[in-house]
Known about the structure:
Layout: H1 16-24, H2 29-41, H3 43-64, H4 69-92
Helix pairs in contact: 1-2, 1-3, 2-3
Amino acid sequence: MKRTVNQNVTPCRHMEGLVQGAAKGELKGIARWYAWAHIHRCSGCRAFLQRLEAATLALRVAKEASVDEDALVRLRRQVSQLAETENDTNKNA
C-alpha cells in the first residue's frame, strides 16, 4: 500500500469527519475500515487524529482534576464584588 504524504499536516478535507468519528470510536463497518486505512497511509490525517486524541486526553485530565474549594470560594467572592461594582457604576451613569 502506498503511503500518502500530506505536507500541510492537516486532515484531508474529505476525511475530517471520518477521522473525528474514528477518534470517538463511532464508526462502524466499511466507514471504520476506510477511515483507519486512510489514517494509516496519510500523515496529515494521522497527525490530526493524534491532536484529537491529545486534546481529548487533556480535557479528560482537566475534568478529573480536583478544585481547591477555598480558591473556588475566593473566586466566587471576587466575581460577586465585580458584579456589584459594575451594577453601581451602571446606576450612577
